[in-house]
Amino acid sequence: MKIAIYPGSFDPITKGHLDILKTAAEIFDKVIIAVAKNPDKTGFLPVDIRVKLIKDSVKDLENVEVDSFEGLTINYARERNATVLIRGLRAVSDFEYEMQLSQANSALADEVKTVFLTTKPKYNFISSSTIKEIFLNNGDISKFVPEPVNEYLQNSYKC
Ligand code: ADP
After folding, report:
1. 64 lines ligand 1 (CB under 6 A)
2. What is the C-alpha to C-alpha distance for residues 34 and 54, in angstroms, rounded to an integer?
3. Which of 6, 17, 77, 120 allows an S-S link to 86, with CB 3.0 to 4.6 Å?
4. pLDDT, tens digit, for every residue of 33-86?
5. Does 17 participate in catalysis according to the annotation?
């Protein structure tokens, strides 16, 4: 059984993330999408809300589990018996950082391989930070995020 971890901040999850996740779920037996807790950063949404919004957005994906973790991704991968890390690539600008990260991870845990995936072009430009910017300036984010995220932000997150 090939288990893959899709780690990230998912603050909040977007249709870009979801597209990557769906592709990963077609390739691997099981995919664990895991919110990385960063003790130095509070972020936009609390981690438990991010996890809940992901759960509500992936209900139809049977081989996907939602979780959160703290510490090194490779330690979490080992704990969960995962041998693959999924990362998404949007543009050349992502490449350098993602390349370094994957090389650092493989130096620490050679058995855990990073697989890079890309989205459909229509989701390529979407990032959590763009979504936050649009939302906080009263723009319409419904095209860019799964419905549970749009609903949550419209109803509960007013600043
Ligand atoms: P992180 O803080 O770990 O970068 P993110 O939630 O921003 O977490 O992103 C998680 C992963 O998803 C990263 O590999 C990122 O490049 C990828 N990703 C995010 N948005 C997109 C997108 N629109 N298309 C492709 N990959 C994406």
Report:
1. no
2. 9
3. 6
4. 999 999 888 899 999 999 999 999 999 999 999 999 999 999 999 999 999 999
5. yes
Residue 157 has a pLDDT of 65
**Closest to 123 (Cα-Cα) out of 39, 45, 18:** 18
Which of 73, 46, 56 shows the shortest CA–CA distance to 150? 56
- Report the percent of the chain where pLDDT is more than 90: 92
Rounded Cα distance between 102 and 128, Å, is 21
- Cis peptide bond prior to 148, omega within 30° of 0: no
Q: Where are the alpha helices (DSSP H) in the chain?
A: 15-27, 47-57, 73-79, 92-108, 128-136, 147-156
Two tokens, residue 83: 């041998």
pTM for the model: 0.95
Ligand 1 centroid from CA 45, angstroms:
16
pLDDT(27) > 90: yes
Cβ neighbours around 28 below 10 Å, total: 22
